[in-house]
Write a structure and sequence with these properties.
Blueprint (H helix, E strand, L loop, with lengths): L15 E4 L9 E2 L5 H4 L3 H16 L29 E4 L5 E5 L6 E4 L4 E8 L2 E7 L22 E6 L2 E8 L4 E8 L14 E10 L5 E10 L9 E11 L9 E10 L2 E10 L4 E10 L3 H14 L17 E11 L3 E12 L2 E3 L6 E4 L12 H27 L6 H9 L2 H4 L4 E4 L8 H6 L1 E3 L12 H14 L1 H14 L4 E6 L6 E5 L33 H16 L2 H20 L10 E4 L9 E3 L2 H20 L3 H22 L18 E2 L4 H7 L10 H16 L12 E2 L14 E3 H13 L3 H18 L1 E5 L2 E4 L10 E4 L2 E4 L3 E3 L9 H21 L1
Parallel strand pairs: 2-34, 30-32, 31-33
Antiparallel strand pairs: 1-8, 3-4, 4-5, 6-7, 6-12, 8-9, 9-10, 10-11, 11-18, 12-17, 13-14, 14-15, 15-18, 16-17, 19-20, 20-21, 21-22, 23-24, 25-26, 27-28, 29-31, 33-34
Helix pairs in contact: 8-9, 8-10, 8-18, 9-10, 9-11, 10-11, 10-12, 12-13, 12-14, 14-16, 16-17, 16-18
Amino acid sequence: MSLSNLDQLIPTKYGWHVSFDKEFDSKWKPFSRPRFKQLLEYIPLFARYLPLWYRLRKAKRRAHMDFINPIPLQQIYGAPIGGLGCGTIGRGFKGEFCRYQLVPGLYEFQTVEANTFTVCIRRRNITNYCQVLTTNRLRQKGLHMWNTAFPKDYGYYQALYPQSWTTYDLPGQNIRLLCKQISPFIPHNYKDSSLPVASFVWNVENLNDDPIEVSLMFTWQAGSATNEFLCEDISHEPVHISDDDHNLSAASGVSIKQKLRDMQLEYCILGKKELDNLVTTRTNFNLDSDVEGRSVWMDLIDDGRLIEMESPAARPATLNTASCVCITTSVEGKSIKPIEFALAWHMPEIKFGLRQQLYSKWYTTCFDKSTLNGTKLCLYTLDNRLKWEEAINKWQKPILDDSLLPDWYKSALFNESYFVADSGSVWLDVSEDTTLSEHVRKWGRFGYLEGHEYRMVNTYDVHFYASFALIQLWPELELSIQYEYASTIPHENVESRVYLFHGQTGRRKMLNSVPHDQGDPDEEPWLSVNAYIAHDTAEWKDLGSKYVLQVYRDYVYTQNSEFLNHIWPTIQSVMTHLREQDADKDGLVDNGGFADQTYDAWTAAGASAYCGGLQIAALRSCIEMAQIMNDKDLVNEYDEWLQLAKNSYSEKLWNGQYYNYDSSASSHHDSIMSDQLAGFWYLRLTGHKYEDFEKERVNSVLDTIFKINVMKFCNGTMGAVNGMTKSGQLETVSLQSEEIWTGVTYGLSSTMIMENLNYEAFLTSEGIYNTCYNIAGLAFQTPEALTSNSCFRSVTGLAFQTPEALTSNSCFRSCGYMRPLSIWAIQKAIELSRKEANSNVNSV
């Protein structure tokens, strides 16, 4: 092949790189069974869970945590498309459209075969090559004749979210294609970042001497990815837009309208018109008809153009009908020419599972709602795509150009950010709801799932880690979440239910408690909080402290006094509830002998390193906030409480090297927990130093964790395992103690950076990214946790679905998880540590 210039159009070397012929280890499976010695405690839980699961299945609803049918591994994902809170569509790194999240909070993990691009090459009015640009062999009847299964040896993919670049070397043609995909994911932009759109710019490079004619066809099917949700009232319509005074771009395309689960949904595809190209369409054809599918294919092969067979309005439309948009242009020899498509999926109003309330999506507030449609969104995309590229480059460039940062980190930071949008996120217009705070009414109601299969909105104990992304990228949305949680604290829900782990009956929401989550999107989130039913989280010992710490951090980062004034009364209520959880009145909350914190399968009793450390940090935060509020009595009260708590924490848990897991007499009380400095972590990232955690002890703890939990576990290649024994063995008392949690490892690494342990920090966190993206293939589906028995390293294909957990015996848990967004704490630590270093230099 002649010398190519196409790769120069990719503006960065960073990102996830993978060839179409990449082979991942097929043995990786969802976690299904704990060790035998751990199994007994789960038998009663499963016995209570099974009837609930069957009831929901009979009602044609999904369990919010499905332990019977976990999501199977698909080692196919690339960067998804779509903004925040508008619904997302996954892309495979080999060209598929997969993992649809159009019904709020509910994922469909199937690939829609018909949703694809096709290229046709003509020379001297003769078609020489016509190929569907995915490696899959299409099985639908109407697609049997299409030339499918693009050879894997000729494709390459690179993703640096929210952009990706897919390169095709067309076999035997001396022609290369580069597809640049982008959705507007732009920090601090609260309009464009909410849009359900994607741009696909194809650059065609003709390496021959003679000119060629190229046609690119974009095909899209009605409905969604499965038949789970009722889809009706389907229609296909052609769209033609001229470049008059009201439109910067001229375009033609198609609109597919339908009602999906009783919600209006419109797909729109537009091809951008240029002076030297032609846009043609086939508005409606039946994918179940071999005749109609053949007609489209032969039409394209005949002259590289499409023609309408009859009036689109006269043709019946069903779930198995599709539309095509084709752009045809000539490319001179030794030259490159662009072809541009825009895709929109416009669902302006939504209802959650119980259909109690109708909401407008946030992005509709940015346009004239009465005229907004898919066509306008596609035109807006064509008109603003270059601005989006510039804004994304402006955001990413300082980090990508930072020579002191490792290359893998630059890729990890942006690629892990996919979960802010592709998290079942919803962003709602609630401006007319006078019961809500002014902030929420102004900036909208935002929610995202704990995970793709842990379907709870804004799960607070996990958001504690993940929120470092929102507070830095879209701080108004982070504050909206806090305002919403604050509004729930002084209320209770007396609905009685049985909690699955121990079978006790309790209320759904207790007065002055911080909810675990804001509900299940298949029920009615925000109106009915606490979907989680494994434990009664009113008795959890971490939620109150985490609420206080997040509020304080958010105030420090935003300096929003109105926010603190509004939240302050709830801080006092939460601290009163926290004091009630101190059974022995030693100043520290007492874990209750069950898994009463975010490690909800790892039992703690009495004082614990994790919850006690969080409480100490929360008390320091309360003192700071009370001083800002000029409440001297509370300053004194919280300071007295803090001194008592610190003394008890030291006496009961410090063993001279690290803090014991808990103060019980259990055999695992002296386990080394990698997350024991979570409270200190938050204080350091809000500008504090060693007022409450002595520097010598912090150094000792970090040294111990690095040597034992990192380096003695898989030789430091997989991150920090949650628990190790004092003797340096894997702690197997709980399934979670032997896991690596990706988000916890990122948080630990940011703590190390604040203590000038950069080498240790990046080595620790590199293990996570390398395992998920390059070894395990969990990219864009990062799990929260990984575990190891034999510590072998295999290629698992988990890209863009970072799970909660991985194991070395080829298991993962909870694909597509919230906690790994804590990687943004690393970036914050980098910035703060440099500022501290500069301040120290200047002071000298």
